[in-house]
Fold this sequence. Notes:
This protein is mostly helical. 74% of the residues lie in helices and 6% in strands.
Amino acid sequence: MISLNATGAASSASYYLDQNNRNLQKSLTRLSSGYRINSAVDDPGGLAVSMKLSAAIRRTDAVSANVGNALSFLQSQDGVLEVASDILLRMSELSTLASDAAVSTNDIALYDTEFQELQDNMSSLLTEEFNGVPLFAAGGNTLTVVTSENGTQTTGITKADLDAVETTVTAIAGITTTVLATAASVTLETAIQDVAELRAGNGAEQSRLSFAQDILAVNRVNLEAANGRIMDVDIAEESTNFARLRIIQEAGLAMLAQANTSAESLIKLLE
C-alpha cells in the first residue's frame, strides 16, 4: 500500500534527530565549560555530593586563613619577646658594669640612666597588639583556634604573661651602687630565663599551627580531587562522544531529507 498520509519515516527521523541535537548541545556545553555536570538534570545525586564537597573546600580555605592569622599573631608576639630579651640582656650587661669597683661615680650614673630608660622600654612592650588584639595578658590567656573544617579540632595560642617579667624588672631600684647592681644582676638573670621560656612556648605553638596548616592544605587537595572526579568532564571521552554525535546528526539530516523525498516521489507519479 502506498499512502501520501503515511509520514512515519519522516516523523521518526525528525524525533531521533531532535534527540541527537539535544545530546550534541549537552556535549558541547560540557566541552565548553569543562564540567560534566552543568545543571541538576545532568546528575542530581552527583550535584548534591559536589555541593557538599564544595562547601567543605570553602570552609577549609576559611579555617586555613584563620590559622594563618593565628600564626601571624604568634610571630608578632615572638618579635616583641625578642626585643624584650635584647633589653634584658643589655640591662644585665649594665648591671654587671656598674658592679665594678673601679668604675667612677659618673660612669655608674650614666649606666643607671640607660638602665632606667630600658625599664621604661620594657613597660611599653606590654601595650603591643596584633590587629587590635593584645599580644600579652597578665597571668596568661589562651585564645582558641579552630584547625579543622568541621570545627571538631581546636588548639590554643597564648597571650604570654610578659607582665610578670615587666613587674619584676621595673621593681629594680637601680644600679647606683655595687650592692644594687649585684642584686639587679640576679633578678635580671631570672627574668631572662622567664622570657626564654615564653619564647620556647611561643615556638611550640607556632610549630603546632604550622602542622595544622599543612594538614588543611592536604585535605583541600583531596577534597578538590574528589569534587573533580564528580564535576570535571573527561575531555578525551567527551570529544569522542561529540564527534560521534556530529556524525549521527549528519546522518539523521540525510535520512530526514530522504524520508521527505519519498513523499515527493509519490506526487510526481500522480502528475
